[in-house]
Amino acid sequence: MKKIVFLFVISPVVLTAQSNKQKEKIHYTGSYQLGIIVGKDYTTFGAQMIQGIRYKNFQTGVGVALDPYGFRTVPLFGHFSYAMRPQKNSIYVYGDGGISIPWNNGSLPEKYDNSTHDDWHNLFAGLYAEGGVGYNILLNKKRNAITLNTGYSYKRFKYDENVYIWNGFETVQQADHYIFDYRRLVFRVGLSL
Amino acid sequence: MKKIYNILQTTCSVILMTMLFTTCVKDSGMKKTTVFTPVFKTSNEVRASIKSDNAEQISHPGKIYVLGNYIFMNEIGKGVHIIDNSNPASPVNKAFINIPGNEDIAVKGNTLYADCFTDLMVIDISDPSNVSLKTYVPNMFPDRQYVFGYMLDTNTVIINWVAHDTVMDINVSEGAGIWRNGNFYSGIYTMVDDVFFAAASYDGSKNNASPAPAGVGGSMARFAILNDYLYSVTDSRLNVINIIHEEQPEWVNTITPDDRFATIETIYPFKNKLFVGSQTAMFIYSVDNPSAPVLEGTFNHARVCDPVIADDNYAFVTLRSGGGTICHDDVNQLDVLDIHNISNPTLIKSYPLSNPHGLSKDENILFVCDGDDGLKIFEAADVRNIQQLKKIELPETFDVICYNKIAIVSAKGGLYQYDYSNITDIKLLSKIVITQQ
């Protein structure tokens, strides 16, 4: 299986890089994408923006996204990509890594109610990671491009729920810890400027 | 040719990666929690074990009952501590009666009445160091047969609960776990009020002239003795038990009032009335016919927890919201009601408080346990102008009994006794340490 992955994914990267030895400055670049997030039984829309720099085949930066899958979160991540033929239409590979910050839509109330003011749900950021391949369709010599990509996306969402339970002798508050892992496919289209 | 090769290569890469990733598309959830599982015993084993044991540390105090020189303190779910209070400055924890499932107690003469899950235990306490089970009334409290997910048969009781840290998988799919735009489908859990933070209180009056004196319970109690009858409330029912023959109680009646009654919390006897506190109202029952209480008056209030006491002319109700409990509304106050017309109790005035629990009254002095805000002592001669005389700083005060000019206060960490014979110079007499486990 590793050989197949190398043959189809890694080898083009190496080959293309070797043939692409033009001198190039560092450029500021921004990427804006909309797409769909496809889970096991459910599909939703997502969006992301990446700001960073580009040098030769490489691009790196930081990004922010809106990821409503499962529980709405805002991933903050570092981004890295490698284009096979930066001066032409070509495929690229990319990887993102960071944290996914929950953006509560009210479905997990933070307080019990107005009368108690006790904590009910405490939400926590979780790991966020994505990797995939894309295709750049250049629009001009400045390397502005339409981008298409697909990837495998993982996010973790965590929260504690403070519940009142009977422990056999008295009512006590206890925190139940919940962890949700979402592994999805993403398909996006956007602009790289 | 090379272009075609590149396009084919790209297409194959995308298809292959999509196929690889598709097999890994998955949502999963996990819950880490603590669950409590019961330890069972047969009812016969439990009854055989009811006797005076060595004194035990008080760790989960419940209802308090005072009779003569003794304080009887419920250890929630486990039994009853017997405290010799002959010298209030130096009370002695004398013995412990092992009664699994016990939550409520009442005392008349030499007889202790205590619930043991569904059954009512009748215990001779004439010699506190050597008590004995005289008899029991089975299935007096059928509501207790269902215990936090366990439906007990008539021959089984739960004597303990054991905690287990547990990790469980959560099925994350449509309608389970965290799903679709944050729509939340949680497992069912039970939120229970802190009704067992109870002690008792007493208004200090000497109206009960029964030959075998009943002890004094109070505003948080669910058992009340009035003359020759024991009245007990469950969430939805008022039981009437004849105890003319103290050691041979006899069930005579159960009253199941309308829906509003479904959340009863406390019962307080005064003269020929029963004042019943529920989460939505205070009810006044006449017991002119003691075996058949008749509803005479109702005072509706916000959905909160509401211990109540009364005297000849006024009822005093503390309303509190609960810390994550079923005392829903945001109300924390003392309501004073005019009960001259018993069929139409009317609100005279409300006094704001922090988180009031039990209360007790001795003549014109009113004691209120105001949760973390301590024990508050009021001058209540003029109910339209109740004035705070003093506040004693105590953590998590639950309830208070006024008895022979001594205020017995249960609070986090201890059972305190204060001498208030000189109201301007209230003195701490003693403290029994409560060790929270």
Describe this structure in words.
The complex is a heterodimer of chains A (193) and B (437). Chain A is mostly beta strands. Chain A has 1 helix and 9 strands, in the order H-E-E-E-E-E-E-E-E-E. The longest helix of chain A is centred in the N-terminal third of the chain and has 17 residues, at 2-18. Chain B is mainly β and 437 residues long. In chain B, 7% of the residues lie in helices and 47% in strands. Chain B is built from 2 helices and 35 strands. The longest helix of chain B has 23 residues, at 2-24. Chain B is globular, with a radius of gyration of 27 Å. The termini of chain B are far apart. At the A-B interface, helix 1, strand 7, strand 8 and strand 9 of A face helix 1, strand 1, strand 13 and strand 14 of B.
Write the layout of secondary structure elements.
The complex is a heterodimer of chains A (193) and B (437).
Chain A: H1 2-18, E1 27-38, E2 43-55, E3 58-66, E4 73-83, E5 90-102, E6 121-124, E7 126-138, E8 145-166, E9 171-192
Antiparallel strand pairs in A: 1-2, 1-9, 2-3, 3-4, 4-5, 5-7, 6-8, 7-8, 8-9
Chain B: H1 2-24, E1 26-42, H2 43-49, E2 52-54, E3 61-67, E4 70-75, E5 79-84, E6 92-98, E7 105-108, E8 111-116, E9 119-124, E10 132-137, E11 146-147, E12 150-151, E13 156-170, E14 177-179, E15 183-185, E16 223-226, E17 229-233, E18 238-242, E19 250-255, E20 264-270, E21 273-278, E22 281-286, E23 294-300, E24 308-310, E25 314-319, E26 333-338, E27 346-352, E28 359-362, E29 365-369, E30 375-379, E31 387-392, E32 397-403, E33 406-411, E34 414-419, E35 427-433
Antiparallel strand pairs in B: 1-13, 2-6, 3-4, 4-5, 5-6, 7-8, 8-9, 9-10, 11-12, 14-15, 16-17, 17-18, 18-19, 20-21, 21-22, 22-23, 24-25, 25-26, 26-27, 28-29, 29-30, 30-31, 32-33, 33-34, 34-35
